[in-house]
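Continuing the series of single-chain predictions for the mutant panel. This is the parent chain; the variants come on the following pages.
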Amino acid sequence: MIMDNVFISMGSNLGDKIGNCRKAVNEIAGFCEVIRVSSLYETEPVGKEDQPNFINCVSQIETNLSPHKLLKKLNSIEEKLGRVRHEKWGPRTIDLDIIFYNDLIINESDLIIPHPRAHLRRFVLEPICEIAPDFIHPGLDSSVLELLKLLEDNKGVVKLDEKFTILQQ
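Parent structure:
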């Protein structure tokens, strides 16, 4: 069976931020194949700046779930890990976003792929560049490495020494 290639960005700035990202990756590994996970990065908040820094990473997965079914699973992981949606761009225990799903372009009310702001965010592009620098953004027809080089976002993004491990299912 041919599996779909997906990149998921995750971030946390409440509670055990590193632990929240690890738990999310391990939850994802329960229903799909986690191919690679970037390093963890400490990043400054974007959008709403008066909140704690985030821990972010990106995982590359293979799945046979449709984009909508995958989104539903990711939303249930967010809920399980205590995500509460009080305000746009506000603090959160975990945020899981589908950045790319193969080379699909989807623009629906409940799902937009590629993520509409991924190419503008250093905290998304740096981790993806670490694990798949040559991946081509299907809407912009440029590699993520090229997009990173053109990026004007000057928000702090610091790679942590922390090693990422996936628990065996």
